[in-house]
């Protein structure tokens, strides 16, 4: 590993993500102090499954601690769709949401717009590709740079979309082995312990996916990446299915 350039990590659809030693370096911006304050609130709440913020390096990039393990999408289907990881992901999301509430009344700048009603600071991409697993257990969550204020269900519905799953591209999911989506949704909501009515989830998934499709289409125009348009089309198809299903 080169200490100057580092090791490029998977993901980083928005910006490059580089590992140098036990740290991760990412592009910083006006939102970075808000994100680092959020990470400190998590630490003060005793949450160890998120990166620690170390400020900026000499190149102006944010420095974060590296969480060892594999993203859930890199696991075998049997591991990725295990009830244990579903349960632990929902419980971690609840802890993150609860720890974030002191920040919702501040005027801190965030990279993403707020969504209403504001109840917590949302991760905005709490999904298997941003969840780290190790030895069959959830080791952590990463990529908080897109966090912003919003309703609990904004995050929870997207986790359900990706992990129940309702997504069209949920490779390797097997209802006979992994459980039906209805049963998995009930288990996810029970683990989150938020008294969420399952009937609220599908409409919020649809709302969430339309917003994500619009964001992805705009990103495709900015970057010239036509592959992002395929993702946006899938989000719109899945949103329509959530409305009718």
Automatic annotation (TrEMBL):
Pfam families cross-referenced by the UniProt entry: APH (PF01636)
Key words of the record: Transferase
Aminoglycoside phosphotransferase domain span: 35-102, 119-182
GO molecular function list: transferase activity
SUPFAM superfamilies for this protein: Protein kinase-like (PK-like)
Protein name per the record: Aminoglycoside phosphotransferase family protein
rRNA-binding keyword on record: no
């Amino acid at each position: 590993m080169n200490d100057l350039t580092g090791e490029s990590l998977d993901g980083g659809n928005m910006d490059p993500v580089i590992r140098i030693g036990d740290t991760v370096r990412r592009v910083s911006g006006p939102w970075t102090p808000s994100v680092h304050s959020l990470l400190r609130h998590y630490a003060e709440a005793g949450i160890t499954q998120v990166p620690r913020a170390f400020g900026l390096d000499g190149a102006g990039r944010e420095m974060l601690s590296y969480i060892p393990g594999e993203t859930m999408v890199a696991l075998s289907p049997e591991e990725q769709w295990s009830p244990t990881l579903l349960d632990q992901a929902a419980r971690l999301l609840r802890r993150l949401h609860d720890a974030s509430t002191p920040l919702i009344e501040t005027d801190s700048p965030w990279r993403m717009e707020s969504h209403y009603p504001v109840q917590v600071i949302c991760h905005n991409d709490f999904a298997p590709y941003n969840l780290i697993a190790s030895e069959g257990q959830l080791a952590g969550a990463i990529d908080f740079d897109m966090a912003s204020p919003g309703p609990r269900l904004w995050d929870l519905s997207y986790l359900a979309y990706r992990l129940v799953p309702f997504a069209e591209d949920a490779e390797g999911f097997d209802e006979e082995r992994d459980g039906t989506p209805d049963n998995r949704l009930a288990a996810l909501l029970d683990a989150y312990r938020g008294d969420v009515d399952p009937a609220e989830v599908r409409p919020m998934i649809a709302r969430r996916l339309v917003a994500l499709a619009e964001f992805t289409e705009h990103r495709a125009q900015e970057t010239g990446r036509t592959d992002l348009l395929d993702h946006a089309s899938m989000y719109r198809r899945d949103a329509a299915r959530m409305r009718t299903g």
